[in-house]
Amino acid sequence: MYAIKVVLQPPPAFFEESAGEDLDPLASLLSARPARDVQHVTLRRLPQHVVAMTFMVASGLLAAESAARSAWTTWLTCEDVKSWRLVECGADLMLGVAAARDEREAPSGW
């Protein structure tokens, strides 16, 4: 399993109208439209962004990043969040280094 850090930019109204606290519509969307290989998403609000730690099952780190980007690209076309923007999508630095190290050390066939 790989942890992919996704940074989202909601529209300014998200922070003005709801004080940025209400992530329920996004969480509901993720539940209603599950994506292949996505095991779990944890949403956290930051002052100007939303971080979605996206936990992926994949054959490797690059495959996990690609699958996460694809899932988020699809989700962000939905009506409720189509004004949101994908800012960043990649392995969390510390977890990514550990995953890359583990891939090199794993016996072949794993």
What does this structure look like?
The chain contains four helices and four strands. The protein is α+β, with helices and mostly antiparallel strands and 110 residues long. The mean pLDDT is 84. It is 39% helix and 27% strand. It is globular. A hairpin with a 4-residue loop joins strand 2 (38-45) and strand 3. A four-stranded antiparallel beta sheet has the order 2-3-1-4.
Order of helices and strands: EHHEEHEH
Kindly report the spatial arrangement of strands forming the biggest sheet: 2-3-1-4
Assembly type of the chains comes to single chain
Number of strands: 4
Q: Taking all residues together, what is the mean pLDDT?
A: 84
The percentage helix is 25-40%
C-alpha-based Rg, rounded: 15 Å
How large is the count of helical segments? 4
Shape: globular
Q: Poorly predicted ranges (pLDDT <50, ≥5 residues)?
A: none
**What composes the largest sheet?**
4 strands, antiparallel
Terminal Cα span: 13 Å
What portion of the residues fall into strands of 2 or more residues?
25-35%
Based on helices, strands and strand pairing, what is the structural class? alpha+beta
Topology of helices and strands:
Elements: E1 2-9, H1 12-17, H2 24-32, E2 38-45, E3 50-56, H3 61-75, E4 85-91, H4 93-105
Antiparallel strand pairs: 1-3, 1-4, 2-3
